[in-house]
Amino acid sequence: MNAIAPITLSLEPFAARLSDVKGEDRKAAAGALARTGLPTPRVEAWHYTNLRALSGRIFSDAPVGFDESAAQAALARILPPDAAIAALPRLVLVNGRFAPSLSSTDLPEGVSCTSFVQSPDFGILASPDREGMVALNTALADDGVQVTVAPGTQAGQVVLVSLALGTESDVSFHPRHSITLGEEASLSVIEIAASENAGAYLHNPVLTCAIAEKAHLTHVKIQQEAENAVHLATVYADIAVRAAYDSFTLGLGSVLARHEVHATMHGDHAAVHVNGAQLLAASQVGDITSVIAHAAPDCISRQTVRNVLSDRARAVFQGKVLVERVAQKTDGYQMNQALLLSPSAEINAKPELEIYADDVKCSHGATVGALDDDQLFYLRSRGIPDDQARQMLVEAFLVETVDLVEDEALRTVLHQALAAALSQRVGAAEKTA
Amino acid sequence: MPAVTETREQVEKLGKSSYEWGFETDIEMDVAPKGLNEDIIRLISTRKEEPEWMLEWRLAAYRSWLKMKEPTWAKVTHPPIDYQDVHYYAAPKKKDGPKSLEEVDPELLRTYEKLGIPLHEQAMLAGVEVPEGEEARLPVAVDAVFDSVSVATTFRKTLSEAGVIFCPISEAIRDYPDLVKQYIGSVVPVADNFYAALNSAVFTDGSFVFVPKGVRCPMELSTYFRINAKNTGQFERTLIIVEDGASVSYLEGCTAPMRDENQLHAAVVELVAMEDASIKYSTVQNWYPGDENGRGGIYNFVTKRGACRGARAKISWTQVETGSAITWKYPSCILQGEDSVGEFYSVAVTNNHQQADTGTKMIHLGRNSRSTIIAKTISAGKSDSTYRGQVKIMPRASGARNFTQCDSLLIGDQCGAHTVPYIESRNMTARVEHEATTSKISEDQMFYCRQRGLSQEDAVGLIVNGFCKEVLKELPMEFAVEAQKLLQISLEGSVG
User: Fold this and answer.
1) What domain range includes position B293?
2) What ipTM was reported for this prediction?
3) Does B336 touch chain A (CB under 8 A)?
4) Which of helix, strand or coil describes residue A358?
């Protein structure tokens, strides 16, 4: 917990840009922010995550143009080596702006994509009076992608890359994305947030997902931003009758990251998965916050989040499952686990159930601990060196969450990203511990 | 108890209101004017014949209270409380003469008799006639607090022979000022929170227990709190100090008359356990919960905290919360000593329009400190019940261990049950486990019971008692029986 939290966090870092916004929505958002300031730990939803890191800095707009060949080279490095993935249609944003030259033009039939600047639409799901970071995004949103899948279309997979490229420090971008699935449509999105040669930037994306009856959206995100970057993402998902929002987030990068999900099941027999894993080291702070709302009967929600923390890393998990009065026969399950690998690592977890219906089955669990000595002994007694044994256990711990992703191609991408991060990190971290 | 008797009791109760402790005692009272200011605090201090330092301590608390705001984070709602519309001191008028049980106003004795609280040592000591099938009970020493003052404390002689001090805290402030001065406010600082500061300024009575080194308290100690007067608040303060290797088991019970307006109860309880000491603190909280429309009832805003100061010290909280319109209560343990142990066993039942936000805090500072939390929440009617708890492992607490289990049971579709745990670990060798479930009484369970001839209410009673068994078994025997009955009564009318 943060010892002394300031009552307000100044808007100074964005003041000049906020005073200059145009249009009703943006003005309203800037007004809401002016009243509340940026969220501080005094706000319950930000109890464990302090945005101090933003204060004392002035964030400016990201430059519009970029070096095409540098971008191509960065993409080649960032995108998963898998040939099957490389062949997928992709949508690329550079420094928060849609880059048509890097994106596929041949989207599957029934799928359309426009950029946010072409027809700015803030939607109704993410309203600024609910969330400070959403308000900031609304006020300053530069661009984004708006993907629509026609009813009945099985659209397959799409890769969405958000690349920070060669930016100076103290640049911020606030992309606004939306994904709309018509009835009985399906789509899998692999979102990758990464950087190349970039300074201490702020990436503040907002994504709204509208999933119509019997539609199915799979959303996998790999967050591997620059090591000094701040990543504050908010996702709103609105799920209709018998529809599903199936998501997974893998948190690897940034000095401060937050992935916040608001998933609301408005139709009966809907399903939500909000899974995730974080592998944090050095003085990284990673926050996964979710509000899963059951607003209709017979829905099902599942959440498994695992954290592996070394050095002085700190993970935050705040997961709320809200079951409204009408949501009878709800089936909710939530699990948060953390593995502390260093004496200075820290976990703050707040799994929360808020239940107003009686005929429900809801449970949650949380565990915190070090690697299991018995398991380590088992491996060591079979001749596996200590380092390797530890790495195997850590990997197994995280891979179990990745395996929750049903789409095989997406699972493979996650496995690769995780394996790469593990081979870089855990070995080194374990030696210092 | 034979089933026939139980059924008869149930049927008899149907005719009347289920809160059987709701009567009012007509007794001559000495009441301070309404309102809170430094003069009232001086008046309380004078009435209590307190030394100067105590008054200063109260005034300091009052001054910090003035600067504080009511906490709003709990999941409860109530109209604003007018702290100036309360009598902060109300005591039965004392007759002259030495204070012994014989001289206690007979009206008061009758009140406690009606409440089933034994204030007659003689009857207890003589053993009276033990009904067949029941074991002879061990005597229990009782401190009876009526509104603002303690009216009687039994078994003081037996206890003092063992070296145990058990007396009203107002008396302790006069007779053992050094002890009180050393420990009061050491676990719950005066400005700890809004209600604790208010209590520190205006507390009127409560119990004081001191168990010296190596003494195992020879009997259960018990305090019985009764709010009687109108428009009063009760602000009691309990301080229990248990020295090295000593142990005590302490029980607390409470009731109040039925009234339409809400009354405020803001208590502070501080426990100090030294090396190898053990404190078991059990509460059966049965303040008037208000009527079925949510009118009236007690606002129970209580700060309870224990410190395990020495190695291997142990503090165990057990609570059965059935009463009060609003409960805001988090009995906590600060586990400073190595290998110290904290336990929290709780059953919270809400019905009608009751609101409860209760739980615990376990702060692990000592190496290998251990804590267990078992919380059972039952919501019925239009009530809301929240478990809110914190487990905090500090960097020094290597090898610390916590296990938490929170289960909620919902009866009816108009109530709410919420679980808000905060888990914070800053030590890699610590292990923390938390699990929580929410469910309703299953149709299978009901069918099974009904098929065997149990009425719907009896079936619910049986299932609820089973649900709470883990906690009820931690209560001393007499309390466990009372608690089981209370559960049944609290849930009356919630099904069918």
Assistant:
1) 30-131+140-490
2) 0.87
3) no
4) coil
